[in-house]
Amino acid sequence: MKTILTPHLLGFLIERGYTHCLAKTQVVSKTDATVSITLTPVKVKPQLENMPSGYDTYFKITREPMQMACGIDDTEVYISLDLKQSKNRFHQDGAEENMSKGSYAF
Fold first, then answer.
1. Does residue 78 register a pLDDT over 80?
2. Which of 37, 41, 48, 68 has the most crowded Cβ, counting Cβ within 10 A?
């Protein structure tokens, strides 16, 4: 589910332990310079070298997404809440870690 990012929704995600947001940026209209940003919350810090397909960057949830929730001119900011439970996390060296507590990821 994709919905508009609000300060209340962002606060809810922070309370639930999400620390970062993956970001996907798309130009919606070149004429009006309208941009669409889709954020996907995650509980572990992503690595730029190992970003999922389609994502440009990531943000710490208490920084840029907090500003985005208050609104940006000519920019639509959405948050993707299609969260699946991930039981494994991969490290930079390729090692796999089985997470005993369920951590939600994209």
1. yes
2. 41
